Amino acid sequence: MSSTASTQTGQKAQSLTLVEAIQDGLYTEMAQDDSVVVLGEDVGKNGGVFRATDQLYEEFGEDRVIDTPLAEAGIVGASIGLAQTGMKPVPEMQFMGFMYPAFDQIVSHAARLRSRSQGQYSVPMVIRAPYGGGIRAPEHHSESKEAFFVHEPGLKVVSPSTPYDAKGLLAASIHDPDPVIFLEPKLIYRAFREDVPTKPYEVSLSEAAVRRDGSDISVYTWGAMTRPALIAAENLSQSHGIDTEVIDLRTLSPLDTETITDSFKKTGRAAIVHEAPKTGGLGAEIATTIQEEALVHQEAPIKRIAGFDAPMPLHSLEDYYLPQAVRIQDGIRETVEF
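-> structure tokens emitted (338 positions)
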């Protein structure tokens, strides 16, 4: 259960997990704006497979918390239509690996309607999707394919790593006039708690967060990989005296290129950590951005520490596939000692 306290600024706050912050963010937005609706598989009476929509059905009713058939293309297509009639739909894809049937609706219609109509129409829609591995799930339940959507103009892509950011980024996404892919790292849904203000607030969709200041190397990451990156940074500080700066991107599209390059100009070295396959991953885009904007500051090759170019394995090899703190430490040391 969450408890109520006060932040340093005197605001009332609750101690929430990341998934509880998502639920609180949805509740807050629905309570203050009747145009916000939630729809998806089991989001209503059951409260969602991870309970992210728990109690919303009881509070707002079946007209605003809508249980749908198992039809992802229909869920997203209906949401695009709702967005055209003044609603702000928040469809849930039960797992990121279930999004593929809706891909055509997302990239052919949601992402393009503003351009197609020369600005006459937009699609104020937030597609929520639990993503990533580490929870011992079956095939198609552990995908990390954020690069698919980052590549598509017209979409914003967001991935929070803390409860505070989850609520604030979700609010900013719902208020945005264009479609947002909101990726929720389910590995850390209930990993830790953080004080989250009870009142409405936003976290910018264009600003990365410096989670740890450092001077020797910049580590760029997001979502569930932020925690092992921070653990690796602390371990290396104690064992080898390596001072690692950790940047949590938060928004993957658009990238906060200013924070990325400012950090690299300070350290001259970079490692990028993501659980998606290495080839064609977002790490390559970040590395290229650094090369284009800050090449003269480079002291060593940029290291990508990522998932392997293979489907996410089942239980016995899942931890080996994901970048753990030890593998991140090895990559950081290799770059610093180059």
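The two ends are 48 Å apart (CA to CA).
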